[in-house]
Amino acid sequence: MQSVESKILYNDRLAEGYFRLGLSWKTPEVKAGHFVMLRLSDGMDPLLRRPFGVFRVIGAKGKSTRGTGIELLYRVVGRGTTILSAKRPGESLGILGPLGNGFPAPQKGRKVVMVTGGMGIVPLYLLAQRLPEGTLLFGARSKKETFLLDEFRELGIKIKTATEDGSAGVKGFVTALLEKELSTDTVVYACGPVGMLKAVSRLCLDAGVQCFVSLERSMACGIGVCLGCAVRTINHEARENRNYKMVCSDGPVFDGKDVDWELL
Amino acid sequence: MGTPLKKKLPKKPLEVAIAGLKFKNPVMTASGTFGYGAEFAPYTGLEKLGAIVVKGLSLYPRQGNPGPRIVETPCGMLNAIGLQNVGVDEFIEKKLPLLKDVKTHVIANIFGETIDDYMEVARRLDRVKGVSALEINISCPNVKKGGIVFGTDPQEAFRVVSAIRKSTSLPLITKLSPNVTDIKVMVKAAEDAGTDAISLINTLTGMVIDVERRRPVLATATGGLSGPAIRPVAVRMVWQAAQAAKVPLIGMGGIMNARDALEFIIAGAAAVQVGTASFIDPDAAAKVASGIEEYVQRHGVSVRELTGSLKLA
């Protein structure tokens, strides 16, 4: 964990509203599912840092977890990302990280299925890079909203898509694809909209399949002290079985069966 | 004429004395923004701080409020954490030992739903090695029982502080709410009850509405506003409190840097607390301390001399 200033190497428009940001940072070990907090302005408004999942490590040889920088992918959704999209190479950004627990590595012999939609695909890339093989299920409203699939394909990952309007892959929700993939030796990694995560988690729970979900909440600090990013979890052993965990420091990756989905 | 001789700076120009304790510098962390202290060790030098004020402690662990608990606002943020904490016993057993080698004061912030709760928490912390003082939270706006009830009614404030005074020999700092009409009345109540110092301000009650959904953004509807947005209000209240107070004041509210901290000191605070800034830069409080040192050297004036040195026309 570090709090340092890092130089912007590139901040390229990928598609309308989507950007690829390279940051120079002699990174400590970055695990799949880690995130960083970025200071987007030296001023007081916006005040808080913003969390971003790490897409990949730059300058890393083979499957190394250390490199000379990191790459983030973001979509312009609000004031923070609008400010970020106007930044130019050479400018510096305060970076705090790497943060969070990350995805646990799959046990040997497990069949890995990744389920995602929207920007949820970003933190799965580091996981995919380190897998010998796996399947990625991508859910979207239409073909326009599918992206990065070629990058995953190049890693040897099998891709299946589901779109609500049928413009790519099968017509319908990604859970229909997931149902066909589930077997007792499957492990599922999911990151995407809460509705999708909830459905994926329920499906896996019913099928007795282990499922890890990466959650997103508003947070101020990223290091477990503001207690802002609480999600309620279920402790299956304890009698008093509900308690709050922090997405930033206990997560962002949780076992799907431990999340109290009713409150999300 | 020549250049006037620069006044000789007193020894230890940053040192301040509050409630019978000496602090190496006037910068503390604000409760609820610095965890139990050890969380910040990877990012800052804890020994550079005048004191660490830990997250509010209750008699039993508290789960806190459902989410969303925070939302950013212009130059600030609203929070409604609901005093989630590990409870006083676990703090003593597991959290406090992590700070045993850190050479600074640890101040335990305490909270109760009833006067008996406050008294029991104070009793359990009494004579615990490594706790220098108690800060009494009578100003949390985010819990249904206790908290701000004691912080907005001077008689209630007097009752709770008097009761705690009888339960512990530790120095007491009473943390006041800004959500009152006349802060001087609250200052007097806390002093009459035997507080050794007063800290202010806690957060201002606020609200943000999601207009698309016509719902409050926070699960609890309202929350406490902090950050630089509240700083002018906080400086004004410290200045007003200073005109009534006999005990030392600890000022806070949106301090982001040394300049901000100096406003509070000049207005009448003997020391300051850095809160929300630690979320943005975990080294913020230590930077405030070094910035004050630079100012003190440049102006040839100690923090003790600066306190309440505001010049009015």
Task: Please explain how this structure is put together.
The complex is a heterodimer of chains A (264) and B (313). Chain A has 264 residues and is α/β, with parallel strands linked by helices. Chain A has 2 domains: 2-99, Beta Barrel (Elongation Factor Tu (Ef-tu), domain 3), CATH 2.40.30.10; 111-263, Nucleotide-binding domain of ferredoxin-NADP reductase (FNR) module (Rossmann fold, 3-Layer(aba) Sandwich), CATH 3.40.50.80. In chain A, 16% of the residues lie in helices and 35% in strands. Chain A has 5 helices and 16 strands. A 7-stranded antiparallel β-sheet of chain A has the order 4-3-7-1-2-6-5. In chain A, strands 11-10-9-8-12-13-16 form a 7-stranded mixed β-sheet. A two-stranded antiparallel ribbon of chain A has the order 14-15. The longest helix of chain A has 14 residues, at 194-207. Chain B has an 8-stranded parallel β-sheet with strand order 3-16-15-10-9-8-7-4. In chain B, strands 5-6-14-11 form a 4-stranded antiparallel β-sheet, with no helix packed on it. A two-stranded antiparallel sheet of chain B has the order 1-2. In chain B, helix 4 (154-167) packs parallel to helix 5 and helix 6 (231-244) runs parallel beside helix 7 (258-267). Chain B has a single domain (16-306), classed as TIM Barrel. Helix content of chain B is 31%, strand content 19%. Chains A and B meet through strand 14 and strand 15 of A and strand 5, strand 6 and helix 8 of B.
